Amino acid sequence: MSKVRKSLLGLGVSAALFGATLAQADNIKVALAGPVTGPVAQYGDMQMIGAQMAIEKINEAGGINGDKLEGIIYDDACDPKQAVAVANKIVNDGIQFVVGHLCSSSTQPASDVYEDEGILMVTAASTNPEITERGYKMLFRTIGLDSHQGPVAGNYIAQKIKPKNLAVIHDKQQYGEGIATAVKQTVEKQGINVVMFEGITAGDKDFSSLIAKMKKANVDFVYYGGYHPELGLILRQSADQGLNSKFMGPEGVGNKDISNIAGEASEGLLVTLPPSFDKDPKNKSLVDSFVAKEQDPSGAFVMTAYSAVQVMADAMKMTKSTDTDKIQKALRENTFDTPTGKIAFDNKGDLKSFDFVIYEWHSDGTKTAVK
């Protein structure tokens, strides 16, 4: 069991993994929905520790208009069908606020349920643009879009790397294929030769045929849209099979476990990630709080999850209400000072501004911003 799950009950966070909860009736309950199990549970840990730290800090400061926040964890395993089941359970549990989901392919169907039921949700991790293109009023996010992240990567590839033969690979999922498509479109507009645009199946372990195909096409640079378990194997197997191409991926691969999977083959991987909010001097006290709990504040979704809880709490205080319609209006009409900076939402519920940064990944799991 992860440290996150072990420490939940001491932080006003209950477990609701399709089972009974320990919720207190007088608390304002916030569902924390994301992967607790499954191949990308590490990202769920990032979201959970950020959200639960925000809940703890808000409660220590007096709560919301005298009431306490209580986080209740729901495991969707980043599976769309399970996400819908989780969303319906949240409805049945009478919860009106959600931080989550994490994977775009889970967030989109779950948000249909929440919108119908008037439940306010803020995702700290889902970046696919289609999610907020449907005119939903109860849906927000505290992270940027792949329609921005993709061009950041694509422009870097076209203007700095300038590969002769680019392969764009993806996992055929909403998030992975979406950002891969954005990268492909960006580089092609600048004359880069995309010799392969191909999908793999999430969960596959043997990528020998893909690597052989890339070697035959003389691929000298690979962009991968998806998550770290598959890319870690592709990196390791590429090194073993003599494919010396450089690789790049989105925040879904920026996890220390990719170094555990790929080993030395992860050295030099390029990754687009949110800024290192844990390095911001104004967040030092907050970072110290994470470190005191032996938690890592550097994960891509830790601070964005903290901000997701905070903006909901701030809107509750502004409106002196837990009415989700009043709160969604307050979110759109105000600016919020958070660990991820001053943030404001547009009419779609997207951030008006968010930067992605390109990092070089190292085999020890650390990263360095690319100048």
TrEMBL record:
Residues 1-25 form the signal peptide. Residues 28-365 form the Leucine-binding protein domain. Coiled coil: none annotated. The keyword Mitochondrion does not apply. One of its GO terms (biological process) is amino acid transport. Transmembrane segments: none annotated. CDD domains: PBP1_ABC_LIVBP-like. Pfam families: Peripla_BP_6. It comes from the Bacteria. Keywords: Amino-acid transport, Signal, Transport. NCBIfam families: PRK15404.1. Belongs to the leucine-binding protein family. This is Leucine ABC transporter substrate-binding subunit. It comes from Oleiphilus messinensis. The lineage of its organism: Bacteria, Pseudomonadati, Pseudomonadota, Gammaproteobacteria, Oceanospirillales.
